[in-house]
Write a structure and sequence with these properties.
The complex is a heterodimer.
Chain A (H helix, E strand, L loop, with lengths): L1 H9 L11 H17 L3 H17 L3 H26 L8 E5 L2 E4 H27 L2 H16 L4 H29 L9 H32 L19 H22 L10
Antiparallel strand pairs in A: 1-2
Helix pairs in contact in A: 2-5, 2-9, 3-4, 3-5, 4-5, 6-7, 7-8
Chain B lengths: L18 H20 L4 E2 L2 E2 L5 H10 L1 H20 L2 H22 L6 H27 L4 H33 L4 H16 L1
Antiparallel strand pairs in B: 1-2
Classes of the chains: A mainly alpha, B mainly alpha.
């Protein structure tokens, strides 16, 4: 929970990257999701990942971001690198570490698996950078304004996303209160086998859900009081997020990454196959 | 008829979205998102063990298919995946899959105390469709083989949805109904109100 709050707070810091329009950052991020879909060349993927690490350093979130990624990378890559070689199509010309019945693990399969892992690394790094440099409330508000004014979509949807983030700390607080009250009644939550501990958590879920339902009714009443109308598409916004040169430059960075991918693919350097 | 438990008498596709539905979606999303994120450490590659996956099914059954579906979509995609940095990877498949996991039982379970129907539509059908979406999307993007992810999602989501969802639904139904939050009751009340207005 503390980590979630820390991560959400990180987006409120001040730096060049933090001050870029949230929608522009979202577009850049979408580009960074498209890049690993387009190319599998491990060197290109590593270079782009390193660029994001440098950007993280510049935006003052390096310490927290690296700490998070160091824990996350092995889980993601480990799984891919171990599993992919078993699914890699076996051919007689590969260099096998072992080849028994339908089970095989070749050097080529391993390289392919590493490339697949690096695609995930790039995607994961871009997402973490985006979350840590963007205030999610600003993002929802900016997107809400854009969706309502340009696409004529009700503000209801951004509101639901934005409010979910706002209620995270409250839910966390309620959860800890319930746990503490169980502990004060001499319930030992931390000992026993996994199954025993899971069973102990079931009675925690009931009052938690019950208290959240009460909260839902309060939210509904406050929305009613503010005359919230799901069909209203002429809502005004307190804060505006106009696009500046800086925002366009940030989108341009994402577009450049995609252009690089197109060029690499046209030169046949975009795929990991050139190393196999 | 003995087979009445399988389908509701009438399948209701539409759900009016008022302030209460919005609030329930928000709360469901927070619960599901935080429940998923807090168990992120129990991971098998991309897929995390989700003891709280039953919340999606529960929300669908108690508060309607659209409220449940949107709560699961927002909770999984915008809270859990974004905070964990996995949004770009599992994004579309995870969003659609989790939506379906709540939407299907919401649509097809006739009553929250109908344990067999919750087990069938939430625990089995909804979860299999969720696994199809997640595994299919990952395979389509070339991130991982289909069968690996398909089976991982099933392993992670079937036990809570099959065992916990019907039990918790039974425990909570009375409280939800007393508060006037059960979606089928609300629909009927709305209908009666409309009829009264017409008269």
């Amino acid at each position: 929970m503390a980590f979630v709050l820390q991560m959400l707070e990180m987006g409120k810091r001040e730096s060049w990257f933090h001050s870029v329009n949230p929608t522009a950052k979202l577009i850049w991020w979408v580009c960074m999701i498209i890049v690993p879909i387009m190319i599998t060349n491990p060197f290109a993927l590593i270079i782009m990942t390193v660029c994001i690490w440098v950007m993280a350093f510049q935006s003052g979130i390096a310490k927290q971001m690296y700490k998070f990624l160091i824990v996350t990378y092995p889980v993601m890559i480990g799984f891919i690198v171990i599993l992919w070689p078993f699914f890699y199509a076996a051919t007689p010309d590969q260099h096998y570490l072992f080849n028994w019945s339908f089970l095989h693990f070749s050097l080529e399969g391993f390289i392919y698996a590493l490339a697949m892992g690096l695609r995930i690394v790039l995607s994961l790094t871009a997402c973490t950078f985006f979350v840590m440099t963007t205030d999610l409330m600003d993002l929802a508000s900016s997107l809400g304004e854009f969706m309502q004014n340009k696409l004529h979509i009700s503000y209801m949807y951004p509101l639901m996303v934005m409010s979910s983030f706002k209620f995270l700390p409250e839910l966390g607080g309620d959860y800890f209160n319930i746990i503490e009250s169980f502990k004060s009644r001499a319930m030992d939550m931390d000992t026993g086998s996994v199954m025993e501990r899971l069973k102990k958590y079931v009675p925690v879920a009931i009052p938690l859900i019950d208290s959240m339902l009460r909260k839902a009714q309060n939210i509904a009443i406050s929305l009613e009081l503010k005359a919230f109308d799901t069909n209203n598409k002429s809502r005004t916004f307190y804060k505006h997020y106009p696009f500046t040169i800086r925002d366009l430059f940030f989108i341009f960075l994402g577009a450049v990454a995609i252009v690089v991918c197109v060029v690499l693919n046209s030169l046949n350097w975009g795929k990991v196959d050139i190393f196999l | 008829m003995k087979s009445d438990w399988i389908f509701p008498k009438k399948i209701i596709w539409k759900q009016k979205f008022g302030t209460l539905e919005i609030a329930l979606t928000i709360i469901g999303a927070v619960l599901y998102g935080l429940g998923s994120f807090s168990t992120m450490s129990l991971a098998i590659g991309f897929i995390t063990l989700r003891p709280f996956a039953f919340i999606a099914v529960l929300w669908g059954v108690l508060f309607g298919p659209w409220v449940g579906g949107l709560a699961a979509l927002i909770g999984n995609t915008f809270i859990s995946d974004i905070l964990a940095g996995w949004f770009g990877i599992g994004g579309v498949g995870g969003a659609l899959g989790n939506f379906a996991m709540a939407f299907i039982p919401g649509l097809l379970v006739s009553h929250p105390l109908n344990k067999k129907a919750i087990m069938l539509w939430g625990g089995i059908v909804g979860t299999i469709i969720c696994a199809l979406f997640v595994g299919g999307w990952m395979a389509l993007m070339g991130f991982a083989p289909f069968m690996t992810l398909f089976s991982s999602v099933l392993i992670c989501d079937i036990p809570p949805n099959l065992i916990l969802a019907p039990i918790v639904s039974g425990w909570l139904f009375n409280r939800v109904q007393k508060r006037g939050l059960y979606w089928r009751d609300r629909l009927e009340a709305d209908k009666e109100e409309e009829e009264e207005e017409e008269q």
